[in-house]
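Incident log, entry 3
Record: DUF4428 domain-containing protein (275 residues)
Problem: checksum mismatch between cached and fresh output.
Input:
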Amino acid sequence: MGLFDKKNCDICGEKIGLLGNRKLDDGNLCKNCASKLSPWFEERRHSTVEDIKRQLEYREKNKNAVRSFSITREFSADRYHVFIDDNKGLFAVAFNMSEQDNPDIVPLSAITSCRLDIDEQRVEEEYKDQDGESRSYVPPRYNYSYDYKIKLGVNTPWFDDMDFKLNTFSVKDHERAKMMNYEQLANQIITALTGAPAPASVYSNGMMNQGYPQQSNMMNQGYPQQGNMMNQGYQQQGGMMNQNTPQQASGDTWVCACGATNTGAFCEYCGSPKP
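Fresh output:
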């Protein structure tokens, strides 16, 4: 057979298009059959044809569980929803609770772990010098953003984790209300799924938390911190606020727009003239 010869799906027998093949350990799977697998399933390439057939049988039976699922509690993130049936001790994590979506119905007793993981991204803030070149501030300034994810471990035959994000767009460090809302939602989900109150600090990095992410093990009341200075959108030099404009310091020194303290007629760091 040639390299580009069409193959047949080992599950349904239909011919597989040029870009539609999903490789199995011992066969081939078409896109249509692959779409019926659990969205939490990650071991397709290492699965045999028989493994896939057994899972598809389970997925068909799961539709009955969806039809009989009675939502007693629901927690809504930006895209994902956590549905709980307290009467049967079941839950699901999905966009919608419908037979068409066929979300996996999992016993609450199958949960092995549940915690909030916060991913921090840091981007350095720069300014343009007199020649239009990008320069770093002294000391460096950073803009922070955060993503909130529930790390949910489960014990099922087909998957062992159901990790999902609470937010769609990264939360900026000044969006304090959003930070509090996502943390509160995470606490509610953890408590609902595990039956135990969420720990005082649900951050995976073990840092103390008073409602917002923190830096360098220092107490943070809403903003990341650098060194021993509070960062509220600006860096401080010599006890004065720096708002991207030159500052006058004590004596014969002066502070450049780049943040460097100087004594001469030109900035020793970026070369800008003294204002």
